[in-house]
Amino acid sequence: MTTPHLAEVEQVRALAIRLAREAGAVQRRRYETALQISSKSRAIDLVTEVDRACEQLIVETLRRERPGDDILAEEGGAHEDGGAAWRWIIDPLDGTVNFAHGYPFFCVSIGVEHAGIRTVGVVYEPLRDELFDAMRGGGARRNGEAIRVSTAATVQRALLATGFAYDVHDSPVDNLDLLTRAVKAAGGVRRDGSAAIDLCYVACGRFEGYWELKLHAWDVAAGILIVEEAGGRTSDLAGGPVPADGREILASNGILHDDLLRLLRG
Fold it and tell me: What pairing do the DSSP bridges indicate for beta strands 233-235 and 248-252?
């Protein structure tokens, strides 16, 4: 497939921003209100009616305004035949456990691929009213202002972030050994429960690095592009490309990437 025209990329970016803000407004209205909460794969893998409402809003708009595009969304709102040039990868509410507990760290994440290449990324954090976005080759922004990764050059000074999969209670692959290494070596480690926000915080220099295991495509599709367009680097834990399904990721300011790979590999 050919490279998309810049005008079309701009149109896709504008639509992604609009949809992220609209879904974020739903989350803001429903934050700390009575919720219907149920579980999915594990007891701690939560979903609320707000997740579903946000996904429905986004998917129905896309089907109406861009009916030829493919869609992959976390709560089952897929609309794919595999032949479309554009593919939207949507996490309608990243940080559902936080949202359900009234912990103010959650967002909308929308990544868009063209011919399998990450082309647009948008992450909106509604309570802080921070919107991160990037276009391939066009840099990364927060609320319209250009952002860059940090220039920290030592792991000892680095603030890192991570998270844990929903099978942490019963899987021997639980990230705890990697966490122990990082806590002993880094300036600090945070665990806030939203992969998309963690990636954006690497992009704007709040974190020097972030790693996690057992994620999904919708967790990272937008954030990877935002990190890379802000001058950072992403990989799997062996230093290769991040898998398409997001099952393993390290994102950093680039300067520390090889040091963090060595640290996490032990």
Answer: antiparallel
Q: 135 is written with which tokens?
A: 């276009």
Please answer whether residues 26 and 53 qualify as being in contact, where contact means their C-beta atoms are separated by less than 8 angstroms. Answer: yes
pTM over 0.85: yes
User: How many C-beta neighbours within 10 Å does residue 186 have?
Assistant: 20
| Co-location of 207 and 138 in the same domain | no
Instruction: Report the SS3 class of residue 244.
Output: coil
Number of folded domains that form the chain: 2
212-237 pLDDT, tens digit per residue, is 999 999 999 999 999 999 999 999 99
Burial of 139 (0-12, 13-18, 19+ CB in 10 A): middle
pLDDT digits 0-9 by tens, 239-263 = 999 998 889 999 999 999 999 999 9
> Please, are residues 94 and 126 in contact by the beta-carbon 8 Å criterion?
no
The structure tokens listed for 166 are 């929903």
Whole-number Å distance between alpha carbons of 113 and 109: 13
Instruction: Render pLDDT for 3-33 as a digit per residue (tens, 0 to 9).
Output: 899 999 999 999 999 999 999 999 999 999 8
Verify that 58 and 142 share a domain, yes or no: yes
